[in-house]
Amino acid sequence: MRVMGIETSCDETAVAIVEAPADPRPVGHILANVVYSQLTEHRRFGGVVPEIAARAHLERLDGLIANALSEAKLGFADLDAIAATGGPGLIGGVMVGVMTAKAIAFAHDKPFIAVNHLEGHALSVRLTENVSFPYLLLLVSGGHCQLLTVEGPGRFKRLGTTIDDAVGECFDKTAKLLGLGFPGGPAVERAASGGDAARFALPRPMWRKPGCDFSFSGLKTAVRQAAEKLAPGDGQAIADLCASFQRTVGDVLVDRCANALDLAPAPALVVAGGVAANAYLRRRLETLAVLHGVRLVAPPVKLCTDNGAMIAWAGLERLRLGMVDSLDFRPRPRWPLDTGERIAA
Ligand code: KG4
Ligand code: ZN
Description:
This protein has 345 residues and is α/β, with parallel strands linked by helices. The chain folds into two domains: 2-128 and 303-320, 2-Layer Sandwich (Nucleotidyltransferase, domain 5), CATH 3.30.420.40; 135-298, Nucleotidyltransferase, domain 5 (2-Layer Sandwich), CATH 3.30.420.40. The chain contains eleven helices and ten strands. The strands form two sheets. It has a five-stranded mixed β-sheet, sandwiched between helices. It has a five-stranded mixed β-sheet with strand order 8-7-6-9-10, with helices on both faces. Helix 7 crosses helix 9 (235-263). The longest helix has 29 residues, at 235-263. The protein binds 5'-O-[(R)-(carboxyoxy)(hydroxy)phosphoryl]adenosine and zinc ion. The site of 5'-O-[(R)-(carboxyoxy)(hydroxy)phosphoryl]adenosine (KG4) has 20 residues, from helix 6 and helix 7.
């Protein structure tokens, strides 16, 4: 089976084609994976501007689809389905991806599959790693921070979520406060590598509390207050604050995951989403997994941040189960994973 996946829910315009046998096993093959990151469009605003993002998706998407087909040496006729992110995300961008996918599906008489962006992150690990359902998932991205049990496409049980900010957003804010630029996650990780994590004592919201919920707003405020006290241009202090912040995030994620492993034991702990690209946090989770006797599995770094391959793969997993969508599907700005809600009207 071959599925094209289109991702346009935030600031990456991405198209990929993946291939796998029709039987429901993990591990597929990426035939093409092209991404256009709209960094230059948004950098001077210090964040993603929805209208600019939608316009850039519209300008780039057709060319990227042509590039993906030529990279895979395929035509539309060789595909078994067209998948696109149907939400949640910036609605203008989601509409561009969904309308384009529907048009291709209609013109070439192929099934259309609307993929929940979070399901794309949640299943992405199975594209490259042999992980069976169910598994415990820590989903950490720019807009989300959740712990879930993943039982299959459309089958999620939520164990906990953030009651305020997402962890990626916290990385981005920290970078902005410290003048490290955008996107913040990789910049904070780079700065932290030369820093002393013990220098700043920062609060660890929810740490050692029962359950699996998260909170990051108090940490964000503490980082701001510490940043305001730094002497301008003190590179070492910036590195130390980044390292202290990253360690604090690590403490919180490990503590929450430990509770989740007790509440809903599973043979594997999977970490996915943009923040899963962070090598320090992966090491912390690896240590926890070893302590609990479970496997820590993460997608390759390139597939942690938004990409088309994860949408194509989730589409392929759905196609195998006959879970295709009607062309009446409406793009959804909000679309929680755990209700299994798929409203077309
Ligand atoms: O999954 P993603 O690409 O987009 C969303 O669905 O949100 O995640 C983007 C987030 C951003 O907040 C970015 O700063 C963060 O992932 N991120 C990182 C790293 N790379 C990306 N956070 C920490 N360390 C990184 N290396
Ligand atoms: Zn994402």
